[in-house]
Structures are given as structure tokens and as C-alpha cells.
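Lab notebook page, bench 4
Experiment: in silico fold of construct C2
Operator: M.H.
Input chain length: 198 residues
Purpose: comparison with the prior construct
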Amino acid sequence: MSNWLYCNDVPASPSRGALTLPRQLTLRRCADDWRLIQTPVLLAPAADPTILSGPRPKRAGLLASAALPPRAAIEVALRLEADAGAILCVRLSNAAGETLSASFDAGTYPGFLVDRSGTHGFRHRYMVDRATWSAPQGTTASDMRLIVDRSSIELFGMNGEASGTMLQYFASPPDRLEVSAEGGSVGLPELHVRSLRT
């Protein structure tokens, strides 16, 4: 996960440049095309207590929030149904005002966005703070799975068709998680957040 342009400057603690989660790769036929599907291995053996669970009705604004255990890795698994133009945002933050977010945009150009620009633990002139994955036109429903540990964020969506991994650089660990809908209403038929043993 490290970028060769600045890998010698990246803080070495905690576990910077670690490998991503092991995943299963398969091919899925989609019309006249093939899609590479990535799904992480089952994390049940590493599961700790549940932080949030249960569906959330379709609405705009804050859908769910919770305090995070200190320095815990977390898994967020959800299924979303959004109004056209709405954005679902999962945001981790801390008391110092740092943020890390992963979003699904159901707008004109639907897709996923991971944004680490709100973290302050490390900066480099060649860093890219945002990563996107485009979904097919008109997509307003999807699954989203996030795994966030001390040094990385991994996103899986569209039943494994979307995936992305980025190192993240909080100066102080996140202590809060919020799930919100912006620009329209979003429902969460499924929401499950749990901490993971590392």
C-alpha cells in the first residue's frame, strides 16, 4: 500500500505499509463482460462486541452514531437504498477534528469515494487524498463494507465489484463513527458495526 514516491518518509508506527486483508477473487459474468470480484475472508474469528446493529429508516441527516473503543479496528457492513442524488457518508472522527470518510454517491455519476484529507498525522506533496470507484449509471442501492485499522481503510461494495485500499494517517485515533445522508434520503435495511481484534 505504500507509495514509492514517499515510502521512506511515512511514519513506521503503527504497522505502516502492512498488507491488505486476504481476499477471495472470483470472476462474474455481467452481460458481455467479466468482472473481477473481491471479497475479504470471513472476519468472524476476529470479531469483538457489536457497536451498532439494526436497520435505519430512510431519511436525510444523521442515521447512526457511536463511540468507538480506544484504538480498535472496526468493520462496518451495510446495505443502502438512496434517493437519486443522495450521498451516504460513513465518517470516523476524533476530538481533535480529524476525519476519515467513505461515501456512496447516488448522483449523476454514482460511485464510492474514500477521503483521507481530514487526517493530520502525515502529509506529503505527492499524496493523493481521495480515491473513487464508479458504479453503473442510475445506481441508487448497494452494499458497502469497510474495514478500518490503525493504518488503513479498505472498502468493498457492489457485491465485490468495487474495492479500494488506502493508508490513513490519524494523528490521534478516531473515537467516533457517524453514518449520515446528505443531499437526499438514504435508508439502511442493514447496518452492522463491530470492533475487531488485531
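Observations: The mean pLDDT is 91. The chain has one domain: 23-196.
Next step: discuss at group meeting.
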